[in-house]
Amino acid sequence: MFQTLTWERSHPYIAGVTAFAGAYGLAKYGVPFPKETSFFSAVITLGGIFSAFSVTIKSLILSNQEKIKSLKETGYHDDLMRYLRTSIDGSLILCIAGLLGFFQPLACAEEFTPLVIGLLVFSLLAIRRVTMASSAVLKQPQRRKAG
Predict the structure, then answer these.
(1) What is the pLDDT of residue 101?
(2) Are 130 and 57 a contacting pair, CB within 8 Å?
């Protein structure tokens, strides 16, 4: 189950929603979550690092025409491009959530910090998915040219 393409496509979303639900449940039971600006500042920093990492991987893949051709031949090109796009977008949304945390009324909302935690888990797993897929692509041996 955990090695299928369906799982690969959906696990960051499933884990992100699960992390949000778990954190929200804990918040309902009175478990305190950080609401300080230092926490949200760290979230912005992590989101920036994650997005820069994803953009770097994307540029490495796109600059290698042989790998792009191989991806298109195997039918994995669209999936990898979607993973990269999702990773970059998720990281930038995490940055926006961290920025919104500086506004006290929003940061104090019961749902806000669990939402940030869910976004963080989603972003981490989207980065992991991109890393695993792109490292497999980059490790492929170069094909010999016929003739």
Answers:
(1) 92
(2) yes
